[in-house]
Amino acid sequence: MRLLRFTNGISVTTKFVAIFVSIVTLSLVVTGFMLYVQATRSTTQQAQTVMEQNLLQIKDSIEEKIQLVENLSQIIAFDTRIQTFLGSVFMNEPFQLEDYRSTISPILENIMRQNNAIHSARIYMANETIPELYDGFYHLSRIAGDDAYKPFMGDRKTQTAWSGLRKEQAMTARFGVAGNEDVFAYDRKIFSSRYVNMAALLEIEVKRDMLFEALKEPVSEGFGRVLVMDGKGKIVSNFEPALYMKNIAEIGIGALPEGREWNEIRKVEGERAIVISQPLDDIGLRLVGVYPIRHFNDKVTSSLKMMVLILFIALLSLSLLVYFVTTKLLSRMKLLLRAMKKVREGSLDVSVPVASNDEFSQMAISFNHMTGRIHELVEKVYKIEIMEKEAELRALESQINPHFLYNTLATISWAARKAEAPEITQISNALAKFYRLVLNKGSSESTIGGEIEMVKAYLQIQKFRFEDRFDVVYELDERTFGCRAAKNIVQPLVENALAHGIEPKREHGTLIIKTGFEAGRPFIQVIDDGVGMSAERLAAINGDMFESSGSGYAIRNIRQRLAAYYGDRHRFELYSRQGIGTVVTVRMPQEEEGDANAADADRGR
Fold it and tell me: Contact at 8 Å (CB) between 574 and 582?
């Protein structure tokens, strides 16, 4: 209430500008917020998809190198020359030493030279008779007591295995290859063609930096970081030295689900970020991508700031425009208000200048016309009063005329009885009854019972005219008599049946009038056995394609009055066969209980 009282003292111009600014500002704020939320959500979803694809590319690159190492191990382990050599008894014969040095040993050397992904490769032989060569062939006894190898060596079912990050175990330095590197090792058991037991252990070492080479230049560079962690949650990639060998939980990522891919939004070090995880199952590692969302939404935020600035400038410009237009319009309204005030004070010689053709000018024209007509209206007051009295007299005369006709018909009936002419008496009585029912006290509606009474009076007159050339059969359900109906609907249908059906037949005819209920809806049916209509004539009448007079015209008139009275709640059906007859059915809407009670009350009056 205080706000309303406060606004009462504010000018209309200020109100217009304030309302305009409020509505536009609120709309812009809500729309801008919704657009920002949708844009950031869409950008985040796209970033999740793009970064996941990037991480999958890195994963594919690492797995390609893993697969390469495993394939090379198969080539070595299933080489028949190596299998035969490892399963043979070495006799230290010169030819054996020569074959050993020139044929067997170069197999490892050639594979390492052709594949720079391999840091080192060696074979630990179970056959103690074969001497060690320090470029790749050693006795298995060197590692038999090493705890790192015992689980793998003791498991007969496992043929291959990857070991975690460790320092290299190469026993000889290779030319051009740095030593003491961090490596991952791949071990494969070699079986000879002669013995069931293991003949040797092949070990291939892959340098960590070579295996994770794809992390150096990821597509996501500048948007986040990609890390590799082992099964204990330690970061084993060293491209970010500050994070090397730290636990993943120490950088705020939290626990990651094991054994499956993962992509969701988490808070990392207090900042919302996309965290994506991809397992490297073959070597027991996991790729983890961390991408702060702000990197993706920076452009959205920048665009939003620019849009807010533009909208603010537009809002300010529109507010000034609204203020200017409102002031101009209200200045013309004030002229009209001053003129109205003069009229209220009694001055009728007031006019407002008209400058254009807009709504305010139309108001001024109307005001000028109003003041010009006031004098005429004052002078015509007495004339109007006289005209009203004349209208009342005409209304009284319209009430007297029916009574005059009734009295005349009663006089004719009395004269007929005096002259002993019963036919004239019946006709005059029927005509009086018919006319009374047609007028229906000036009401525009009737009841089905009233319509039937009017038709009976009409047919009583027509019986004399047709000299009993037709019979009338009434099949009436008295329950329908109280149902409301549009006035004077049945009589034109009966008249049509006589004039266009039975009379042209020139033989004795039958007319059936039925009332009843169907599915709770009252209906009236007029049936004749007259000449009927052809299919073309029936189609023309149903399609309103007929002359301006005759049966078609009467039917159209009835249809129009039914439509005006019931709307689309009624049904009018016309069926005819040439030489057989015609059936017209009017189905009225089901009456509500209140309508039925009102009809009963009208019938009681």
Answer: yes
Residue 499 corresponds to which tokens in the numbers above?
Answer: 């004039």
Q: What residues form DSSP beta bridges with 472?
A: 511
Q: Which helix (H) or strand (E) holds 406?
A: helix 359-418
pLDDT per position as a tens digit, 474-492: 999 999 999 988 888 898 8
- 130 CB contacts (<8 Å, ≥6 apart)? 85, 86, 90, 100, 137
The per-residue DSSP string of 186-252 comes to EEEEEE-SS-SSEEEEEEEEEEHHHHTGGGSS-TTBTTBEEEEE-TTSBB---SSGGGTT-BGGGGT
Bridge partners for 486 per DSSP: 445
Q: What is the length of the chain?
A: 605
Rounded Cα distance between 459 and 466, Å, is 10
- Secondary structure (3-state) at 409: helix
User: 41 exposed, middle or buried (CB, 10 Å; 0-12, 13-18, 19+)?
Assistant: exposed
For residues 147-161, b (16+ Cβ closer than 10 Å) or e, as one string? Answer: eebeeebeeeeeeeb
Residue 605 banded pLDDT, cuts 50, 70, 90 = very low
To the question of domain 443-587 being in CATH 3.30.565.10, the answer is yes
Closest CA to 17 of 337, 313, 325, 311: 325
Q: Alpha-carbon distance 107 to 126, whole Å?
A: 19
Distance (Å, whole) CA 28 – CA 182? 59
The string of pLDDT tens digits covering residues 67-109 is 999 999 999 999 888 888 888 888 877 888 888 888 888 888 8
Q: Facing residues of 190 across strands?
A: 200
Of the candidates 563, 572, 568, 564, the one whose C-alpha atom is nearest the C-alpha of residue 542 is 572
Q: Please, are residues 54 and 289 in contact by the beta-carbon 8 Å criterion?
A: yes
Higher-pLDDT residue of 480 and 240 is 480
Torsion over CA of 332, 334, 335 and 338, rounded to 10 degrees? 170
With residue 456 as reference, give the H or E element that holds it.
Answer: helix 448-466
The domain 79-212 having CATH identifier 3.30.450.20: the answer here is: yes
The sign of the CA dihedral 39, 42, 44, 49 is: negative
Q: Which helix (H) or strand (E) holds 329?
A: helix 294-344
Q: What is the reported pLDDT for 389?
A: 47
Stretch among 27-36, 161-170, 195-204, 275-284 having the lowest mean pLDDT = 27-36
> What's the pLDDT at 545?
64
Q: Are strands 225-229 and 285-292 parallel, antiparallel or unpaired?
A: antiparallel
Nearest alpha-carbon partner for 424 in 438, 437, 410:
410
Helix (H) or strand (E) holding 151: helix 150-154
The mean pLDDT of the chain is 78
pLDDT above 80 (res 300): no
> Which has the closest alpha carbon to 199: 98, 78, 75, 69?
78
Of residues 58 and 605, more confidence is placed in 58
Beta bridge partners of 279: 286
Q: How many CA atoms lie within 13 A of 357 on its CB side?
A: 0
Domain with CATH 3.30.450.20 in the chain: 79-212
